[in-house]
């Protein structure tokens, strides 16, 4: 694990826990980097409840070790908010490659080599279908992302907000929401820097959008009030350290607000969004 962390760079903080729920809880407190947990000593319900509880309070990248089917474990790990599952025995080079990305995903996808044998027609047909599928995916991404920041558009983000709010209300999962806003107009280069700072502290389950010309929103599934506030504060610190300016050369001043649910006073996704949106001319958002 230490070797993998060294290969991944100095930005990660490795920690490995093999224990019962109580010892695991104690060992994981305060970790804000990479947390890798071997759930062999825990039953399924324990690791499920512990993962959800831990991610409500922390902004660490959580990986779960598995001795079973890695593909199945990956889906289950994502279900509880973890970055993914790591198959035992660990492949240090593969692990380091995952840790290089703030999203816990491999940065490089190996190219598939065409088999030496087989009819040429089959190869051409498969290549055509793969190219068509890639084209469909590309068109979809273009339709739901902002071309200047590569963050999600407001309509798509609102659709995901509605989905996640209903899931939170039904299953009582924590859901965090953070708004970052500024005054003035930004040039394309500055917009990319802003989106980069926000994405640097997100997980792959988080949903970030450029909501309008002065507002960015981040939706944080499986994140409670403490973790949501910590996320907002870290992003604000990162934006301040960049010393960004608007198109007139004036320093940007950032404001943020956060909210979390389930909350008995929040009855709809719109009310949840209104909790963080800035007021306009002294009136509520």
Keyword list:
8 strands; disordered C terminus; 10 helices; four-stranded antiparallel beta sheet; disordered N terminus; 2 domains; Rossmann fold; 285 residues; alpha/beta; four-stranded parallel beta sheet
Question: What is the strand and helix layout of this fold?
Answer:
Elements: H1 2-8, E1 16-18, H2 21-28, E2 34-38, H3 44-57, E3 61-66, H4 70-79, E4 84-87, H5 92-99, H6 120-144, H7 154-171, E5 175-181, H8 188-200, E6 207-212, E7 215-221, H9 225-242, E8 255-261, H10 269-274
Parallel strand pairs: 1-2, 2-3, 3-4
Antiparallel strand pairs: 5-7, 5-8, 6-7
Helix pairs in contact: 1-5, 8-9
Task: Please give a structural write-up.
- The protein is α/β, with parallel strands linked by helices and 285 residues long.
- The chain has 2 domains: 2-99, Response regulator (Rossmann fold, 3-Layer(aba) Sandwich), CATH 3.40.50.2300; 154-274, 2-Layer Sandwich (Alpha-Beta Plaits), CATH 3.30.70.
- Helices cover 45% and strands 16% of the residues.
- The protein has 10 helices and 8 strands.
- The protein has helices at residues 2-8, 21-28, 44-57, 70-79, 92-99, 120-144, 154-171, 188-200, 225-242, 269-274; strands at 16-18, 34-38, 61-66, 84-87, 175-181, 207-212, 215-221, 255-261.
- The strands form 2 sheets. The chain has a 4-stranded parallel beta sheet. A 4-stranded antiparallel beta sheet has the order 6-7-5-8, sandwiched between helices.
- The N and C termini lie far apart (48 Å).
